[in-house]
Amino acid sequence: VETNPKHLIRARGSSFVGGYDGPAVSKALVADALKKRVQGVDGDTCEAGEEDTFFVADLGEVYRQHLRWKMHLRRIKPHYAVKCNPDPQVLKLLAELGTGFDCASKAEIEQVLQLGVDPSRIIYAQPCKTKSYIRYAAQEGVKQMTFDNADELYKIKQFLPDAELFLRILTDDSASLCRLSLKFGASLDTTGSLLKLAKELDLNVVGVAFHVGSGASDPNAFLGAVSDARAVFDQGIALGHDMRNLDVGGGFISETFEPMAEVLSKAIDENFPSHVRIIGEPGRYYVADAFTIACNVIARRTVDDAASATKSYMLYLNDGVYGNFSSIMFDHQHPVPQILKCGDKTAQDLVSQKTSGPATEYSIWGPTCDGIDCISESCKFPQTLDVGDWLFFEEMGAYTKCSATRFNGFTDKHEVIYVSSEPGAKALLGM
Ligand code: PLP
């Protein structure tokens, strides 16, 4: 019986066709792949780097999220935000599933086009673009792009005068994990003059875009944004622009997806007639839960507390905040460590021991020489972990490996083992 409320919510949104329980199959498949990969790695004899961090990605999870999106946000065509995790298999699957793509740079546009995706499925959703990248987009036929200031309009006029422009407006993103409106978005007292300038420059504004902030927690954040978008639509129409698109951005998270989708769908239907094309730019919604990471314990320090006569440990892993745990710094995440292998026991063997014995306290650190490289200040396990043991962390798919650095000479390229808990995803990818 599934007791984790998060998984209950997800299960509700997932399809249980013919009794097939995708999330349960996913858990088993991922656990098996993790176990197989770490078996046989002997720290005393292995090649340098054989014990490196690795991911297991369940592409079935991405597939299920897509079905869930289609079920609850029928009107909105998702344009996956590549920045969130440009994993080649994720992009390939989404390209096969027919989504569009939100690209932020030349490299992202290039990666998507190389999959054979038509340029009309791409939106260059970066309101402040590099000039040479606009020229590249023009050369490749990518016409949809966002803007939020006058200087950008002059650049676009110079390099892509027949661009299909979305005016990105400011939102109240105060209830989100990562606020984007500190940096982007035109305030409502500037939208009129921007639309007027676009008209004077003979540029085509075709719609409005917004983003309620990455990792938005309040479904109502969409209400104000949709109503502001409607007002700007009307300004554009009054000035003679052919306003026919609304881009509702990203910000969706698995935990609150259904209530969010309900609020958003209702607001869209109330404000935008059916001929208006609606797109979205979800990132973390698609991939956050699909990736699990496994890390090796490379060092340990014992901390004796004489006063309480207790022993705790500092564990050093081969990955940290300068690597795939960059999400701790940049994305305000708190990854939860779980034991994958302790001595000769694997996670499955340890299940029955979970409550036995007093818990030992650990702090978990990354491999660099910087003191801020801390993954967890305090966590407890009943087992005594040692050098060579393995930990794993779930929900490591969003804003993790894409922002890993090579600080201290550690690699930023790690193996990804792909599995699929959905036969549909397997078939599309020929797995
Ligand atoms: N669209 C734009 C313009 C963004 O800047 C971002 C994230 O920064 C996204 C979409 C994806 O947001 P999320 O991953 O929260 O869905």
CATH architecture of the largest domain: Alpha-Beta Barrel
**Hetero groups bound?**
pyridoxal-5'-phosphate
Helix content: 25-40%
Helix segment tally: 14
CATH topology of the largest domain: TIM Barrel
Active site: 369 (proton donor)
Pfam families: Orn_Arg_deC_N (PF02784)
Modified residues (N6-(pyridoxal phosphate)lysine): 83
Protein name: Ornithine decarboxylase
Would you write up a description of this structure?
It is an enzyme of class 4 (lyase). One of its GO terms (molecular function) is ornithine decarboxylase activity. The modification N6-(pyridoxal phosphate)lysine is found at residue 83. This protein is α/β, with parallel strands linked by helices and 431 residues long. It folds into two domains: 5-57 and 289-429, Lyase, Ornithine Decarboxylase, Chain A, domain 1 (Beta Barrel); 86-282, TIM Barrel. The protein has helices spanning 5-13, 22-38, 59-72, 88-97, 106-113, 131-140, 150-159, 188-200, 221-238, 257-271, 284-287, 326-330, 347-350, 423-429; strands at residues 54-58, 76-81, 100-103, 122-124, 144-147, 164-168, 176-178, 204-209, 214-216, 245-247, 277-280, 291-305, 310-317, 338-342, 345-346, 360-365, 374-381, 390-393, 415-419. Strands 1, 12, 13, 14, 15, 16, 17, 18 and 19 form a nine-stranded mixed β-sheet that branches. An eight-stranded parallel beta barrel has the order 2-3-4-5-6-8-10-11, surrounded by five helices. Strand 5 (144-147), helix 7 and strand 6 form a beta-alpha-beta unit. The radius of gyration is 24 Å and the shape is elongated. Mean pLDDT is 92; it is low at 1-13. Residues 81, 84, 102, 125, 180, 211, 214-215, 249-252, 281-285 line the site of pyridoxal-5'-phosphate.
